[in-house]
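Anyone up for a design puzzle?
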């Protein structure tokens, strides 16, 4: 996982490769997009890959994958974090719904929201809010299983990171923390009026590759700075890599989680 690009538009999906698709395929994609906007894709119950601890869970990490991937994409994550054995963490890796993605000529794939073009990245408001509701329901489900919201961390990569930030900052109960890798804050103009008071001081681990050619580093850094200005304690990291995850990043996430969940003597998370 450390040297792949889970959310990158691979050559078979890039716009220049897709120009050879037939007109029928494009028309079908546009029809699917209209159906989505009209509410015909409404079943957003999220199937998930779930990894249970060897004893009753006392914390939950919900991890959202990137565009075109699925919940299996980060299933190896727990083994690479170096989490203290004192924690009994349930890891939940939900699958995004399959929807037509405009940037990819309307081809259906797993996505948390539509991407119309690279300039308007993340501004499919109806799709973002629809998925945020589904993720919020997943958090509530974990609370119903016996883990307090204050012991739940919401994280993700790229489009999943965008959803983690959007959803977590608006969730009505205090969460433990947010992790956003190679992502950005969508619909940032609405945050001031929609932010949850319960999560005004939520810890945020945000990281990005300095050579990211899919989600420019600038988008991530600008989002982090916007959040800091609003008073959120953001811990920013960047790495000499592209749109991917590296070993050092995973180790620092593990350290952050250990602090967040209360076993690191170095103090509270930033």
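Challenge accepted. My sequence:
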């Amino acid at each position: 996982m450390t040297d792949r690009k889970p959310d990158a538009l691979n050559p078979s999906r890039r716009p220049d490769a897709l120009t050879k698709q037939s007109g029928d395929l494009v028309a079908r994609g546009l029809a699917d997009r209209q159906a989505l906007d009209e509410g015909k894709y409404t079943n957003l119950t999220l199937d998930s890959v779930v990894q249970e601890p060897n004893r009753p869970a006392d914390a939950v990490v919900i991890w959202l994958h990137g565009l075109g991937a699925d919940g299996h994409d980060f299933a190896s994550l727990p083994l690479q974090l170096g989490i203290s054995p004192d924690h009994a963490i349930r890891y939940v890796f939900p699958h995004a719904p399959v929807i037509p993605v405009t940037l990819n000529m309307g081809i259906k794939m797993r996505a948390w929201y539509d991407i119309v073009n690279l300039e308007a990245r993340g501004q499919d408001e109806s799709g973002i809010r629809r998925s945020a509701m589904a993720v919020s329901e997943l958090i509530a489900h974990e609370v119903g299983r016996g883990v307090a919201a204050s012991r739940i961390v919401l994280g993700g990569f790229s489009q999943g990171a965008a959803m983690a930030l959007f959803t977590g900052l608006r969730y009505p109960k205090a969460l433990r923390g947010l992790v956003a890798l190679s992502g950005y804050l969508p619909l940032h103009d609405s945050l001031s009026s929609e932010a949850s008071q319960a999560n005004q001081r939520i810890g945020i681990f945000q990281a990005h590759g300095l050579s990211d050619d899919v989600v420019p580093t600038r988008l991530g850094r600008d989002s982090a700075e916007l959040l800091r200005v609003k008073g959120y304690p953001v811990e920013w990291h960047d790495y000499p890599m592209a749109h991917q995850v590296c070993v050092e990043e995973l180790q620092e996430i593990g350290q952050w989680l250990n602090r967040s969940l209360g076993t690191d003597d170095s103090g509270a998370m930033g």
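A detail worth pointing out: The CA atoms of residues 74 and 125 lie 26 Å apart.
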